[in-house]
Design goal:
alpha/beta, 434 Repressor (Amino-terminal Domain), Rossmann fold, six-stranded mixed beta sheet, 13 helices
Length: about 325
Amino acid sequence: MKNVTIIEIAERAGVSMKTVSRVLNGEPNVRESTREKVKKVAAELNYQPNVFARSLASKRSFVVAHFHDNPSPDYLEKIYTGIHQVTRSSGYLAVMEPLTVPYTKSAGEYLARFKVDGVILSPPLSDNTALVEMLLERGIPIVRISPRNNFELSSYAYVDDTSATKAMTEHLIELGHKKIAFIAGPREHGAARKRETGFHQATEAAGLNKSECPVFQGDFSVRSGFDAAKAALANSGDVTAIVAANDDMAVGVVMAALKRGLDVPGDLSVTGFDGSRLGDIIWPQLTTVKQPVEEMAAEVTSMLLEEIVAKEHEKKAVKFDVTNLIRNTTSIVKSPS
């Protein structure tokens, strides 16, 4: 299949090659009618931008990187899908790069080898002040997903993790549960901290005994949820419900309950957070808070590409709504026999 060039687009649209280049690179100072005409011609000719050729002809790499440190493959896949939806149609290449502690050193080593036009940070990296400041000092545009601090430093998208977890915990309380455990995510993870706050707000507002609503530590992995649930059920045998800070840990809770011979949700109600594919396919199907991860990733990517082109760009904060999926792992508390 023949590669279409900007020369052909310019000839068909009746404009200069420079104008075509400006439109395809998303640059300003092009009349909207001309911009639409060029885009229409490019689509008709099935123009596929060559990232490497464009980078040679400009000072940009046409590459954006998503820096992350998260053990949930489903969460990362959704982020990449959202990013790719935007970069693919804009002629950019998206790369996923895991960082290790210390994050500034890991990011610095990557940036010394590869040039990127901008960076997307997701939790817990979106909360790491040293990393954020290092990237900004290098003049690299950044956007973030669900940060918990330094909001003025970048554009970002978020959900209200606190109120979402509060509402899900209230759902359990409405079902009659009074002894509810919480499995927390990593301490350095801002969203995890907010979810724990929401759990405490709900139990305190309901006047539940704090000692009967214990918190156990996890790290967002299935295994940590399994281990934390084992501890919760061994140390607090009369716990009737467990709220996990993400779906992977909630699945681990279900596994631990079944291994112990408990019925879910008859003996133990379980909730998660994320709306992951894993929570969809297990049985019983997981009750969870579904956050629109793909949509948030697409939104921050659009913000990033705008900032790359415009240089000076007003910082934005876009809030997304969550959906409570009340499914098969929660039920009315069983009355004592």
